[in-house]
Amino acid sequence: MTLKDIALECGVSMMTVSNVISGNHKKVSKQTIEKVNAVIKKYDFVPNLMARTLSSKSSHLILLVTPYVKTQELDSIYNQYLTELIASIERELMENSYYVLLRSVYEPKEIEVMYKTWNIDGAIFLLPFFNETIEQIPDYQNKNFVLIDSYADIKGVAYSRCDDYQGCFLATEHLIQNGHKKIIFAAEHEGNLLLEKRFRGYHDALKKHGIDFTPDMCRPIVPNYEGGLEFGRSINRDTLNFTAIVSTSDLCSMGIMRGASENGIKCPNDFSIIGFDNLSIDEFTVPKLTSIDQQISLKGKKAVEQLLNKINKTEKENVASIETKLIERESVKKI
Amino acid sequence: MTLKDIALECGVSMMTVSNVISGNHKKVSKQTIEKVNAVIKKYDFVPNLMARTLSSKSSHLILLVTPYVKTQELDSIYNQYLTELIASIERELMENSYYVLLRSVYEPKEIEVMYKTWNIDGAIFLLPFFNETIEQIPDYQNKNFVLIDSYADIKGVAYSRCDDYQGCFLATEHLIQNGHKKIIFAAEHEGNLLLEKRFRGYHDALKKHGIDFTPDMCRPIVPNYEGGLEFGRSINRDTLNFTAIVSTSDLCSMGIMRGASENGIKCPNDFSIIGFDNLSIDEFTVPKLTSIDQQISLKGKKAVEQLLNKINKTEKENVASIETKLIERESVKKI
DNA sequence: CTGAAAGCGCTAACAT
DNA sequence: ATGTTAGCGCTTTCAG
Predict the structure, then answer these.
(1) Does the reported pTM lie above 0.85?
(2) What is the enclosing helix (H) or strand (E) of B208?
(3) Dist. CA B250–CA B277, nearest whole Å
(4) Cα angle, residue B307 at apex, residues B95 and A126 outer, rounded to 5°
(5) pLDDT digits (tens, 9 = 90+) for B186-207
(6) Closest by Cβ to A79, choosing from B83, B104, B297
(7) Total beta-carbon pairs less than 8 A apart between chain A and chain B
(8) What are phi and psi of A239, to 5 degrees?
(9) Phi, psi of A302 (to 5 degrees)
(10) Which of A180, A260, A329, B291 has the fewest CB atoms lying closer than 10 Å?
(11) Rounded to the nearest 5°, which phi and psi values hold at B261?
(12) Is residue B63 within 8 Å of B120, Cβ to Cβ?
């Protein structure tokens, strides 16, 4: 069943059917529209987008780019994170009649190949691992790129990310409001644009409430489970010179809690901690972990919004900054 | 840059270039092949698959089908699970020059629409939620379907799933080998094909080692975190008439451990437990959770193998049953 | 408002 | 071993 068959049965030309389907309703009379739609419905006709793309160049295909790494190498945070992100993006694109091609990419060249192969209409980079490669892609300014979680400053692309500054500001302020003054920041942030934003939020919250920041309050740990575990194990009654920790990931927080508990230092009685990401496992830890929620689905939705703005050349702000939320559980104690 | 341009520059016909690209090397002389390949390389020419599909009908596009549900409704197990599964499938398809279209599907009709729209070459159903809908899809026997984790018995489709029977057999036997005799099975399995297999594995392991099964050894709980929590809370010194639990999900195990510990009943001293799925969070629980590993990546790889067999009409067994593995951690105590 | 002609980039089928 | 013809299903362009 093709456009031609529909046209024949309706006694009109292919162009008329095409116009009805494309929603060019100004070019067709009401009666014709109804007649054509009836026949389309009768046969459950669905236009072939391969053919449409070939002649019109626009495929309605969006490339979702993930890094090509061994699955095991992906920090487990990405598991939950990516599923939710991809699901929300797919849903939002679907509602706008776009389709999702998923591809793990190792070198920038592959992006270009995908464009030539499938006439891609745009791409969303799901993780901020592509900052350096994007500018190597030919004509990247005109390729409708959206970067997620990236603070790179690349001309012509759009961004969707959570407000990392505000997230750690919130966390820090919450600790202060619970009576904490000796609050440390648990991540090496130098050289990492995202972590620098988070550090800045922590720093400025201290400042706002008249607490001096000194360099020893920043602990240069790697913010994953192992890094947290190592740091946690270094905590004992002698080194416990703080009452609260601003962490930059839930898994890191879990590592810290586990490591410290090996020395009999327990959260929340001996120290309070706030994570980042609001993973569902936060409900399963002991104590349940207070965390900063990233609103992942909203981030995906906004990424699609940015993309459609680019595709439709709607002149808009090219950064979506998603508000974070504090999710209170049991890892912060009022002192 | 098109086939035509390459043909022109080489001084040959389009068909010759096409044959070189498709690997029809019997139809072209060695010199011509080299000449053509040189020009292709010179211009980084990539053939347009929209055009190829239009004339050849084969798109090299594979549909990955997930259920369309609210993200929040997806049990968190699927998060980690799906990411790893999708990553392994994408990788394997990519290596065979296939491309991945991702789509969440609400009703069977949508599958048919995707086929008409994009000339899909086959589909993999990532979760066993489609058993009832598949047979409603027109011509489903010839559509190259692979179902993951399904025990449905549908004509003409292929399957990739872990050996659930063997998984719980392994778990039960491991407990027995650690001296346990009073072992309960923690899931309502009736009416669920997959859970029935697991129960059978548990049952047969008991039998093999001369332990009688009595109906009270099967606890009809819902095998997720909440169900586990509820059951765990029901355990106290009076009701603790077993020494070990075969659970059918890691999250359920975590719920049980948490619920029981609220009553002062601790794993592994008061009872042993083995989970199912081997989630990475098993490393973070206290005690670390012994579990049955599903080899998710292998499952994805085998799913692709099944699919390619169908596409290439290679006559093979249409079920891939993935061996499970026991991952020992700290939740089983020798008694 | 409606239609005819031409062509998107490729390949199947049939030549030579 | 190589080339020619026709056509995949749709839209663009230009005419009426």
Answers:
(1) yes
(2) helix B193-208
(3) 6
(4) 50
(5) 999 999 999 999 999 999 999 9
(6) B83
(7) 129
(8) -90, -5
(9) -70, -30
(10) A329
(11) -65, -25
(12) yes
